Amino acid sequence: MYGNRHKIYLDADKYVYRYQFRFLKNILKTERRFGSADLQDLMDKFIVYNLISDIQEKDGGAASLVWFEEEESIAYQFPIDGTVVSSLSGIGYSMPEDDWI
């Protein structure tokens, strides 16, 4: 998607793009109240999204984007025993009981 110069590495294999980081900074500047847990949740979603995107770019069958009509939202779909879950656990994320991705 974007080159490495646009990535901000937070830890090994965990990164957000500069535009994602600016988005979080802009949230902090608004009058809306966000707690650190809310910001961490957004940061985790960016990290997971970026990892899945990287995997999908290399292997188109590893994950797919799905549109949920009722919620009017988009999410990734991937096999529970596939590359994505293995890669997520490799950077310290386990699959939640409910789908938050």
How would you summarize what this structure contains?
The protein is of the alpha+beta class and 101 residues long.
Give an overview of the whole structure.
The protein has one domain. The protein has three helices and four strands, in the order ββααββα. α2 crosses α3. Strands 1-2 form a two-stranded antiparallel ribbon. The protein is α+β, with helices and mostly antiparallel strands and 101 residues long. The chain is globular.
Question: Keywords, please?
Answer:
alpha+beta; globular; 101 residues; 3 helices; two-stranded antiparallel ribbon
Largest sheet: 2 strands, antiparallel
Radius of gyration: 14 Å
Report the strand count. 4
For the termini, the CA-CA separation is 19 Å
Instruction: Please tell me the overall pLDDT.
Output: 85
Q: Which strand order does the major sheet show? A: 1-2
Count of folded domains: 1
Low-confidence stretches: none
Shape: globular
Strand fraction band? 15-25%
The topology string of helices and strands comes to EEHHEEH
**Structural class determined from secondary elements:** alpha+beta
Number of helices: 3
Oligomer: single chain
Please give the structural blueprint.
Elements (H helix, E strand, L loop, with lengths): L6 E5 L2 E4 H12 L6 H23 L5 E5 L4 E5 L5 H8 L11
Antiparallel strand pairs: 1-2, 3-4
Helix pairs in contact: 2-3
